[in-house]
Write a sequence for this structure.
């Protein structure tokens, strides 16, 4: 087995051609210093919210240290041709990327190569090799269900190109839409200024709040419409909401990450109202909301003649504690009938492990 001390290569924001986009802000866990490690793969975690490669690295002193290389969400890597078999235990890898804060044995996955452990010669540069194509095409979907309600049932994804909607508009292209900043008041501005990426609870595998899970995600969503309820599932963080139709808001209920929601149909739209939310961050940039926040989601169909059925969401967030007025977020996703969710298996990075 080759002995490989950690090499410090450079200071950079990213590695060209590498895999450097995790599900959270990279600054939460990583510096801009680029390091390189070599070791034998012990495990490959091809799941959301991000993939992980675990390595046994032998130092110059012969001591073995387990390292972890953390990369993008598995569904994004699948688009690039990666599968659960792209990396195998027992393979000897050289990985370069941004080093972890606090000196823990962790790197943000950038470039990766498989080497011959005997002489260090290159076997391959690790990159996507499958012919996976996101099953999004001109996929039609009936505008209404058999009972006349608007039809939103199915999986909805970013669509080709993962484009975005313009601010204030509903242009086609899929992906995250209008992300105008929150209209913070003095208290909200102070709470936002206090945000430190290291304190982002999502990075430590705690569940995200409703705004982040439902309104801010660029990742796929699945909706199921039943006679008395709506079920919404989110691939990025593995969240699931089961929302009763035409239910009354309770007078007193515990605050949670996803809050309490009720749904109703209004013509050709579905409206979901939510309250009883915990104070939470709404994105990798922070953007906190207080526990007085309420949220109204309005779903509608906005089909495209070239791509097919599309689902538009407009979310209006009201927070009297932190904002001067409503904050509106929008996204657009496309009907993807054959789409399969990748399971969520978040593993807390060692930089976030509590001491002791």
């Amino acid at each position: 087995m080759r002995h490989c001390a950690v090499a410090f290569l450079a200071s950079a924001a990213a590695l060209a051609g590498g895999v450097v986009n995790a599900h959270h802000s990279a600054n939460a866990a990583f510096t801009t210093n680029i390091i390189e490690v070599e070791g034998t793969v012990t495990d490959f975690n091809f799941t959301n919210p991000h993939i992980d490669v675990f390595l046994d690295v032998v130092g110059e002193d012969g001591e073995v240290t387990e390292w972890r290389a953390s990369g993008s969400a598995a569904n994004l890597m699948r688009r690039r041709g990666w599968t659960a078999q792209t990396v195998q235990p027992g393979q000897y890898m050289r990985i370069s990327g941004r080093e972890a804060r606090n000196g823990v044995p962790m790197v943000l996955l950038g470039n990766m190569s498989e080497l011959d452990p005997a002489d260090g010669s290159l076997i391959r540069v690790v990159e996507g090799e499958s012919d996976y194509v996101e099953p999004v095409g001109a996929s039609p979907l009936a505008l209404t269900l058999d009972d006349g309600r608007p039809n939103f049932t199915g999986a909805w994804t970013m669509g080709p190109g993962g484009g975005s909607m313009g601010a204030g508009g509903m242009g086609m292209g899929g992906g995250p839409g209008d992300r105008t900043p929150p209209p913070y008041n003095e208290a909200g501005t102070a709470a936002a200024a206090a945000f430190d990426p290291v304190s982002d609870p999502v990075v430590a595998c705690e569940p995200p709040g409703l705004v982040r899970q439902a309104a801010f995600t660029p990742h796929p969503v699945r909706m199921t419409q039943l006679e008395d309820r709506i079920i919404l599932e989110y691939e990025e963080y593995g969240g699931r909401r089961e929302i009763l139709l035409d239910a009354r808001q309770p007078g007193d209920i515990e605050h949670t990450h996803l809050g309490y929601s009720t749904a109703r149909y209004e013509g050709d739209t579905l409206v979901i109202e939510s309250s009883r939310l915990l104070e939470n961050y709404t994105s990798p940039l922070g953007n906190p909301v207080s526990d007085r926040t309420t949220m109204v989601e309005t779903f509608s169909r906005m089909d495209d003649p070239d791509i097919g059925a599309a689902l538009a969401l407009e979310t209006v967030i009201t927070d009297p504690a932190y904002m001067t007025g409503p904050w509106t977020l929008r996204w657009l996703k496309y009907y993807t009938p054959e789409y399969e969710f990748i399971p969520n298996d978040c593993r807390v990075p060692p930089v976030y492990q509590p001491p002791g």
